[in-house]
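Lab meeting, item 3. Inverse folding demo.
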């Protein structure tokens, strides 16, 4: 704590770091609260892959197909018809990318229908997201 006991007009050379610490604690709290929201919220068992996969499409729309065959578009459950409508809206942006999260136990036909809906909407950039295998 800096105190000026005299009347001389010299500048105080100490920096008060308390406001800086307060700001950093607020930023840390915001980061801790928002970090879990950046992951896929629909629980899906992804297939394993040995390729070097990265999450480059942070702004991509995502479709999740659960084990029961339920469809989710950006974490909101939809029917096949609603999915087609949402994909048509998303396709209006030329750079739209779609990530498909499909559970390992989903029938191939369900995933093929999702892929066909993406292609019918005119979206050419889509990826299947997989969980990386652990290297032994």
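The presenter then showed the designed sequence:
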């Amino acid at each position: 704590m800096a105190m000026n006991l005299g009347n001389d007009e010299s500048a105080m050379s100490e920096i008060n770091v308390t406001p800086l610490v307060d700001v950093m604690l607020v930023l840390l709290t915001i980061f801790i609260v928002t970090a879990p929201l950046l992951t896929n919220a629909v629980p899906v068992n992804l297939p394993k892959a040995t390729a070097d996969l990265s999450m480059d499409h942070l702004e991509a729309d995502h479709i999740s197909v659960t084990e029961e065959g339920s469809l989710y578009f950006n974490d909101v459950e939809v029917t096949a018809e609603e999915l087609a409508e949402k994909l048509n809206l998303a396709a209006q942006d030329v750079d739209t990318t779609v990530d498909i999260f499909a559970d390992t136990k989903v029938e191939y036909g369900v995933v093929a229908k999702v892929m066909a809906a993406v292609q019918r909407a005119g979206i050419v950039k889509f990826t299947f997201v997989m969980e990386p295998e652990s290297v032994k």
